[in-house]
Amino acid sequence: MIRNTPLIDATGLVRDYGALRAVDGVDLRLQRGQVLGLLGPNGAGKTSTMQMICGTLAPTAGHIAIDGVDLLEAPRRARAAIGYLPERPPLYPEMSVAEYLGFVAALHGLPRRARAPTRRRAMERCGLQGMDRRLIGHLSRGYQQRVGLAQAILHDPAAIVLDEPTVGLDPIQIREIRGLIAELGRDHGVILSTHILPEVQSVCSDVAIMDQGRIVFSERVDRLGDSARPDCVLVALDQPPGADALSSIPGVGTAEPAGSGRWRLHFDARRTGPRALAEYAVGHGWGLSELTPERRTLEQVFVAMTTRDSADTEREAS
Amino acid sequence: MRLLAIARREAAALFRSPLAWVVLAAVQGTVAFMFLLHLDGYLQLQSQLRAAGNGPGMTAYLVPQLFGAATSVQLMALPLLTMNLLAGESRRGTLPLLLSAPVSTIEIVLGKYLGLLAMLALLVVLTACMPLSLAFAADLDAGLLAGAALGNLLFVASGGAAGLFLSALTRDPTIAAIATLGLMLVLFLLGTAQDALGAPWGALLSYPAPATHLAPFFRGLFDTRALAFFVLFSVFFLALATRRLDHERL
User: Fold this and answer.
1) Residue A83 bridge partners (DSSP)
2) Contacts of A88 in chain B (CB under 8 A)
3) Measuring CA to CA, which of A71, A189, A193, B227 is 20 to 30 A from B34?
4) Tens-place pLDDT, residues B200-225
5) Nearest residue to B224 (alpha-carbon basis) of B125, B150, B127
6) Partner A contacted by B5 (CB < 8 A)
7) Of the candidates A288, A53, A290, which has an alpha carbon nearest to the alpha carbon of residue A190?
8) What is the ipTM of this complex?
9) CA B10 distance to own-chain centroid
10) pTM of the entire structure?
């Protein structure tokens, strides 16, 4: 029963900044073992949504429960169950790594005796061994990010929220942080926001795309291929009849050359499909030698979801 | 205690910042110069006072003069010590750490305030050290000195509360500092309105000025009305700061 309580359960989140509605009715649910990638163009409302979940920004409307505890009714208990790494790691440059993590442990009310072992474990997990006495202000960007991450996981929270955790890191550091996130996702729940699409495919179990304050797409990453009905095939023809003939096939919208004798056919999935197209090509004796349904990549989904909407608003505005 | 953890960190940050030490040094230098001037003045008056028979003793003469001068110098120093309390946290992006932690807003504000008080107490102790340095050569009225030091502490504590609130309003420490200085100067000027305007307006306008409530302490009196004023003044601004932070947070 308790296992089924979502770690994060946000419903109908709204946040207005003056006349601007930055977040407009967002519902988010995170279960244990999930790593949810939150994607979206700049200004889509990702950071505001994360801030509201972590209780650092008051929502205009909506309801948030962390591990079954209402953030408004029992803020202290709800906050204890969440670890948050903001876009800029919240570090005090004049403190040493050990002092800083000791302070964070005290903020979370850890008993004095438990602080040192807790701190050491978090430092180990984030690859900060031997850095106890280094001043945070003297660390490189990558190590500062690790200290920020250590701060977020220090008190062993059920849910971890990371706002662009790999921004500004070099490729090796990115790999290490991604490895850590994947590891954290096994016994916690993680929400992370990012601009890097391959990052979602490499570390996330789920993806949600935000645009203009709304969640416009939400799917499990491993179902990304089949969820999107293929509406595009790649065909290789021995006797290609030309672009005009191809685009006049019933149901086909456009045909474009895809190089080395192949053609990419975009079709209306309600009127035709790969099988009908194959039969049509064979019937006309075009010498069909290859037909591959093209799966939509995350990038295509992202572009489709976020640009169509902006075209809509432009139409609404005009 | 989470409140004490915040207070300790704040005090440590203040004691580690070069800014705070430069401010302390500048205040100490200026006040020490004034102390020497007043001491010199007393030495010149001493024979006349002795001849008059019932003139004020050294402590009674020197302490109000010294602490009166010290409060006006501290007025300038306070904004520099309070400006980073919350504005600095917003600017450096560390405020989310406190806001997302399981601590109440009151604990954050009081923790910061307590940390600041540690630094302000040092400011007062350093001032009190000047008359204390005469203890080896003269009889000091310890009660009078303690009363004046308490009054001085209450004064800087009330100014610190106002500075903390103004630091919660902005992300820019410079703006917080200038706003605090402006507020303190306006209150200081209102305090002088009593003489210029006369009753009843003078009394009414000068009441909110902390400096006007210092006189009993400087005479060595423990005046609960004045104490109540300083406590209320501080609580008022701390409550405003809490409200302001609460507004941002859930």
Assistant:
1) A160
2) 93
3) B227
4) 777 788 888 888 888 889 888 888 99
5) B150
6) yes
7) A53
8) 0.89
9) 17
10) 0.85
